Amino acid sequence: MEPLKATEGSPQKGKDVKSRLTELRGRLREIHDLQAAAALLGWDQRTYMPPGGAGARAQQIGTLQRLAHEKFTDPAIGRLLDELRPYEESLPYDSDDASLIRVTRRDYERAIRIPPAFKDEFDGNAAITYQVWTRARAEDDFAAVQPYLEKTLELSRQYAAFFPEAEHLIDPLIAIVDEGITGAYLTQLFAELQASLIPMVRAIVGQPEPDDSCLHQHFPADRQLAFGLQVIRRIGYDLDRGREDLSEHPITTTIALDDVRITTRVRENYLPGALFGSLHEAGHAIYEQNIRKELEGTPLGRGATYGVHESQSRLWENLVGRSRAFWEFFYPQLQAVFPDQLGRVPVDTFYRAINRVKPGFFRVEADEVTYSLHCAMRFQLEVDLLDGRVAVRDLPEVWRERFHQTFGFAPTTDRDGVLQEMNWYCGRIGGLYQHFTLGNLMSVLWFEAAAQAHSEIEAEMAHGEFGTLRNWLAQTIHTHGRKFTIPELIDRTVGGPLTSSAYLRYLKRKYGELYGVSFQ
Amino acid sequence: MEPLKATEGSPQKGKDVKSRLTELRGRLREIHDLQAAAALLGWDQRTYMPPGGAGARAQQIGTLQRLAHEKFTDPAIGRLLDELRPYEESLPYDSDDASLIRVTRRDYERAIRIPPAFKDEFDGNAAITYQVWTRARAEDDFAAVQPYLEKTLELSRQYAAFFPEAEHLIDPLIAIVDEGITGAYLTQLFAELQASLIPMVRAIVGQPEPDDSCLHQHFPADRQLAFGLQVIRRIGYDLDRGREDLSEHPITTTIALDDVRITTRVRENYLPGALFGSLHEAGHAIYEQNIRKELEGTPLGRGATYGVHESQSRLWENLVGRSRAFWEFFYPQLQAVFPDQLGRVPVDTFYRAINRVKPGFFRVEADEVTYSLHCAMRFQLEVDLLDGRVAVRDLPEVWRERFHQTFGFAPTTDRDGVLQEMNWYCGRIGGLYQHFTLGNLMSVLWFEAAAQAHSEIEAEMAHGEFGTLRNWLAQTIHTHGRKFTIPELIDRTVGGPLTSSAYLRYLKRKYGELYGVSFQ
Fold first, then answer.
1. φ, ψ for residue A107, nearest 5 deg
2. Interface pTM, i.e. ipTM
3. For FRET with A292, which of A45, B86, B147, B491 sits at 20 to 30 Å CA-CA?
């Protein structure tokens, strides 16, 4: 047999589209497998790893991530993407192949902007800053972590500078997790939210406080967990393709689309923690479990963006899990599990208790009404830090001032203020808070769109049936994986740009009714 | 500053030994991290992975192993090893650096003999054969797996042929796991063992059977596990650097030298399974936990060979765990855990029960006296298969014949015969059984050497103290990791070649006493 001859000058020319796609997919699959292994190592680190494993584990995860990054920034990937451009342009925008090539190119072009030496410095600073923060927080000692946070800010600015075409420094940092969303858009969005929510919170705080003492009793951990598991199974988290374990901070980890795990934590003296935590993580997990299997092993085979992910967790946690219809079905079951604690507590008292609005220091414990105000303040601080309007050393004080402007009181310690959560101490400032609020907005939009398309959804919820809602989400959002950005998804599902109007309308209606107040 | 100039023709020449060693260690560390990740994926597969994860998991492990192999066979490693040879030769044989270079070279030279395409075929055949075997065993259908086993035999021969300098086809297959041991040596060893053990078994079978009904009662799983955990912690398995979980087949998995995990399984109607299984695995784990940390991340940072590993597991399971001294301390505790089941059973009855000799079909359930006879038969079959004296299609029949020759009876099904265990159905024939017997031999040799060096060991055991024994093993065997082959280790510890004499003497003394028989 004659060997195939390469035509002059181009050894690639003989290759056809199919073989190039196969090569691209093979390379992406290998990278994906490395990332999946790193994900399992991370899950194990938080669940079952014995204390002795900690040192080697950080190194092992680092090696896998570095190899994945090396393989993804291989110029061969760029060449394949270039060669596949005519094919991509010949296909519908939302086809699997066009989306694969488009999204992979976007990721690739972002990845190769970052010089390896910078990445090493960036990752190294992240690791050490996190370590220093854990001590600084325990000791309420912001000064200890301040130089590391200054370095983090400097590196975040340097990162952004690799994308000089961006309108604002924060844009490339947001794009890491929420492609298609800009700082300018968020600045306006958060200002609008503050204008509506701050007066709402003031009006609510002026009302009599609902009694939530029913939630502060002794609830044995094993029964809390068993009940939570039953609930998330019922909403559609598939435990043959997932599992729930305990960890200090709840997380969702995707090892494969058929192996999506969640964790939760339990406090025996407060009922909502584990229950709503499980619902939240199950929302993330149901999203990943319903991505089309054909997208697995590629950059399309996961949730679209952090904001979209958060929309799914918040939808199940709040729109479903804190609704009256949901508890019509589940409250008698919960009473049966905790007869001494809840047997004589009416469902309405319970419903009001789990929806109590009470401004507090901590974002992660915030109710639906105050939640986005915490995010607004943090987003604005990110912009001000990046722009140099706020210096890191002044952050504790500025935090207190702005918190006071928002809520009318302020934390006296930094542990309850700027040190309260890890986010900024993990190596980056910028792009760390918008997704929670974007998620809130989209959770309402999509829940209402589903309810409009299927008027039976609320009645089904009251009977413990969630299939119609879940299928709508699966077919409208989940199935596409990472094909679309937030603006694209909004445009495809409900039309128009993403605004705060539906979200604010929802909050005003629900909390107006709960507190007997009529909001503007 | 002037840049360093490379001298003529050799860009390597400027490099010194230190930078080469650093580069070699860096490359080996990366490979090690990939293997550690694959190990965790394997552990998770057997313990917590939800059923849905199975498909992706096989692919993920395959990718990690392939990458590790690619990186290990990189010619740069061969070059570094060549460049480091003068340095190696300037050092004592047993120094860390000389051992690292020597053992890495041995592994490297073995690895590069195997063409990548052959490796892919070999690994692919292993995966499919194992799958077919699980069905074939369930359905007692040897014919279903026969063609795959024929392919396995052919591939095993081809593998061996990549080492044409070997005296016998089985030698390169043994060297994969027990470097320094040859087929010729084992042929003689197993013949000697059969000559002694077959008459021993016949003599024992002629005696009245000890009553082991005390072991066949209902023992709740949670109490079995709690007791077992207490025992293995006491012998020195460090649970801050390990953990015990449940799995279908007990395994030990090293994720890092400070993260060595074991699994066990429990049968509620038979006490010894979980207990001795845990002791066995803890023996493996204690070995790895006591390897010097300086060797971690290199080919030296694990157990020396499979045979040496098995010596440690068998030592704790049998020499310690089935000894009278051990139960002097632990039996009252066991009685306290199971007062209804064992409260009125004297320790001597229990001791005789756990040491009952009873020929049976299954190697994994065999007692100390019959165990090596199962291995002898399998080793001889491996040789005969490789030499073509036995054909795969005749294996079921030949199995029955040889089993009958050994034990005087034979299984009627292949499920109880040639299909009983996975070993040959995992891609290779040859080198799969010698290590169990080598382990038995060395377990006795080293236990006796320790007891000779420290006469207090037996008295300590009777008081539940194991520190002297464990420290002797740690300092004499464990600490060296993979520095030495079996012959080297035997020579360094007890002198001379490895023979069966101490092992047979031990069996004759222990079982002569138990059964009131005087063996030749």
1. -65, -45
2. 0.93
3. A45
